[in-house]
Amino acid sequence: MADDSTTIELSMSELREVTRYAVACARPALVIFERACPDDRRPRDAIDVARAFAEGARRSKAIRDNAWAAQRAAREARDAGQGAASDAARAALAAAGAAYLHPLAKATQVKHILGAAAHAARAFELSAGDDPSVGADHIEQSRTLTPPVVVDVLRRYPAAPPGGGRVGELIRQLDASLRSGG
After folding, report:
1. Which SS3 state, helix, strand or coil, does residue 104 take?
2. Please, what is the end-to-end C-alpha distance for the chain in angstroms?
């Protein structure tokens, strides 16, 4: 495992696989956002550009622009008291952000790999009345979706950092499970 002062090898192919995984984890939560905000395409657009990158498109400004737009959608949903929709939009933001995983061996980069899964899990929890078993189910589904290349990339980074509230806890649960092979 690398320490916080080193860089790691990270190929474009690996970035595409990490992004593909993040998209697969975030996409199911779109229904939560779109139920609350049916006319707002920003999270869907963020997932679409991330998916296009995963499928071979260039890593472009459009990914960043759509990620920022999904972040604004998340903030607006949160401010409107729609916590589940906010986390669903954050899952889309994280999927787009996965395309910009940095090759710096810092624990904070784990959020680029697992953030989409954790925010989607939190969205499902909140939409089910803040039921942690629903989030645990999504984390388990995300674990089973994880391709070996993503686990290999994850293991090059230090373990997920502390903090981050419930989403941070979900990231750490998924991180520990994937690192242990369980």
Report:
1. strand
2. 18
Q: What is the mean pLDDT of residues 152-168?
A: 95
Number of other CB atoms surrounding residue 14 within 10 Å? 18
pLDDT-based confidence at 19, cuts 50/70/90?
A: very high
Residues 6+ apart with CB under 8 A from 2: 8, 105, 156, 157, 158
Name the maximum alpha-carbon separation found in the chain. Answer: 44
Q: What is the pLDDT of residue 2?
A: 43
Buried b (16+ CB within 10 A) or exposed e, 91-130: bbbbbbbbbebebebbeebbbbbbbbbbbbbbbbbbbeee
Residue 28's SS3 state is helix
Q: Measuring CA to CA, how many Å separate 92 from each of 5, 26, 34, 59?
A: 29, 6, 12, 16
- Report the sign of the C-alpha dihedral through residues 7, 9, 11, 17, in that order: negative
